[in-house]
Each structure stands twice: as C-alpha cells, then as structure tokens.
Amino acid sequence: MLSGKAEADALAALRDRQGKGARYDASNAPADDLLLARRATAYFARKLMELSDRELFAPSAVEGMPRAYIVARVSYAARREALMLEALAAGSPPDSATPHLPALDMAATLPARAIRHLFHHSEVHLNVCWRDLDAADWDRPIALPDGTSTTPRSLPRLRAWSLWSSVLDLGNGALLRDVPAALRPGPDNS
After folding, report:
1. Which residue has the higher pLDDT, 74 or 16?
2. Residue 136, SS3?
3. DSSP secondary structure string, 113-127?
C-alpha cells in the first residue's frame, strides 16, 4: 500500500505517461457508484458476448421480449443519458437533449453484429461523458425523461441497477447472487 504522497506521485506519473488526451473522473465524482456501473457494464457485455447470433434473437426471461430488444433498450438508455450529459457539460438545458434515435422495435431487428456494436458504442459514449463532467456538473440539476429532477451524481447507480436488471432479463445464466450486494433488493438497500 502506498502512502498518500507516494500514491499522488504515482498517479501524477501515470497521467504524464498517458498524455493530454486521457480522461479522468472528476475528483468529486461518485467513484463507488461509477465502479458499480462500470462493473455492471462489463458483466452485461460478457453475458451478451456469450450469446450466439441465433440466441440473441431468442426469447429472453421476459415473456414476449427477445434478447435483442433488451440489448437495444439498454443501449438506447446509455445513449440518452450520454446526450443529456453532453448538453449539461455544454451549458445547454439538459432536457433539451432530445435524442433522435430510431424506434426501439426497429433497433431490435438489426443484425446481431450491429446490435453488439450498438451496445459497445453506447457504453463507451456514456463513460466518456461521465469522465468529461467537471466537479460542478455532478451536482447540477437535470430533468430525467420521466419528468423527475435529479443530478448526474445519481445516474451511475441508476445505470448500474438498470444493467443488472437487464442482464437478469437476458435469461442466459446471470443470477441474482451475481448482483453486487449494494444493489440487491433487501432491507439494507432500500
């Protein structure tokens, strides 16, 4: 374990090696919730990649919903959040970031490779937007599509929960016990 100064020096050296183009979370970003969301993204990606192309279009654990629809829904949610955060960072009203995305039903009919790319690109886009938020942006008010008001600080945890719920909905081996304890339903996590 490094001391505080040694850790700060090591971090500074790493940032020097990575150069000016590297992105980092703001110092006051919700690190624990971002970690939950990033791990949920990685787990969802793993379960998605385990599916063959035929299995991607097979029924999910949600009656009447193919797995491709779940992947498209998760991807669109990331894209909407990323566009909202971009608008916030640009100084535009975040609720003005009305994405022009094709219909979800249409996206779920894309070829398997395109659906996988949709997920990958949307999660990269969202992660870049999280990293581009400055310290003040994390606490600025935003309106969610359902009309409720919050701040970007709450979004990574909401994203983590959405991803874990969706990976269970895929119905290809994910179990409730795979969900981090901090997100599992129960008396300690309400």
Report:
1. 74
2. coil
3. HHHHHHHHHHHHHHH
pLDDT of residue 16: 78
DSSP secondary structure code for residue 102 in this structure:
-
Burial bucket for residue 8 (CB in 10 Å: 0-12, 13-18, 19+): exposed
Scanning the structure block, which residue is given the tokens 């790493």? 14
Give the chain's end-to-end CA distance (angstroms, integer).
34
- Residue 142's H or E segment, with its range, is strand 142-143
d(CA 70, CA 170): 7
- 180 touches 188 (CB < 8 A): no
Residue in this structure with the two tokens 């909905």, named with its chain if needed: 169
pTM: 0.85
- Under the phi-then-psi rule, with left for phi > 0, alpha for psi from -120 to 50, and beta for the rest, what region is 171? left
pLDDT per residue as tens digits for the range 42-63: 999 999 999 999 999 999 999 9
**Helix or strand (DSSP H, E) at 107:** helix 104-107
How many residues in total does the chain contain?
Answer: 190
Contact 168, 65 (CB under 8 A): no
* CB of 189 closer than 8 Å to CB of 183: yes
